[in-house]
Structure of YceI family protein:
Amino acid sequence: MRNTLIALAAVASLSAGVAHAADYAIDPTHTFVTFEIDHFGTTTNRGRFDKKEGTVQFDRAAKTGKVDISIDVASVNTGTAAFDKHLQSADLLDAAKHPKARFVSDKFAFNGDKVSEVSGHFTLLGKTVPVTLKANKFNCYDNPMLKREVCGGDFEATIDRSAHGLNYGVDWGFAKNVRLVVQVEAVKQ
């Protein structure tokens, strides 16, 4: 009987130490999705999306995770109202017909304890293609103001916009490749 109790206590203590995935909510005040695209080999057009939301599940011990981020494409902001309006039009992002872009992933790669990339699928203009976001930074910390853990990093990928049917200006020499930069922080729930 004593050996059975010792065995049960050992199993209980082992299972108590098993980590489970934690849920995190994207902090929109510390999360930015920006883009850069070449403009005739002369300059770089830049912009960002001001409205985004999403969730992350992250299990550091198991080295697994999931992410689901939605972007309101009508919130595009280049600092120039006329350019924003054109980006929102049917020529480009077609915000009226396709109001959301979305990135979904359940494949996290690690370098040691740090996330090195997140592979998933990016949907834009109703077309979904594989995308891998490479991490330039990744960290988790105890936020002194929120009194909760926050995880996040700086990620980037280059996508071929024509894979989504976004071909405006390609015949004139506008670049097809768009650099996406995603700065994300998510708060443990």
